Amino acid sequence: MKEASLSGDRLLAILAALANPLRLRIVAALQADGRNYVSQLAREVGISRPLLHLHLQRLEEVGLVASKLEFSGDGKALNYYQVRDFALHLTPSAIAEVAQSITTKPKP
Known about the structure:
The protein is an alpha+beta fold. Helices cover about 50% and strands about 15% of the residues.
């Protein structure tokens, strides 16, 4: 993900996705392991698989993680996740630039 391609709305979505402590822990665990399947990742992070799925879905929606379904030797389906390469360099001028493209209305 390149910074120059970020719109204001996309930056807001990415920051919102990262503004959750569990999601930060998930990204950190995936970065440390390279990739992992859902059951193992849930054990590592210490949350249920359904809750992990919700957080992974949010991270995948904004492009921070990617998944790939693979089958083990015994035919069991394993959904592997890994962190996608991304970098955000936030400066006041970068924020001012992307802020011009924000279409999301502020909540009262």
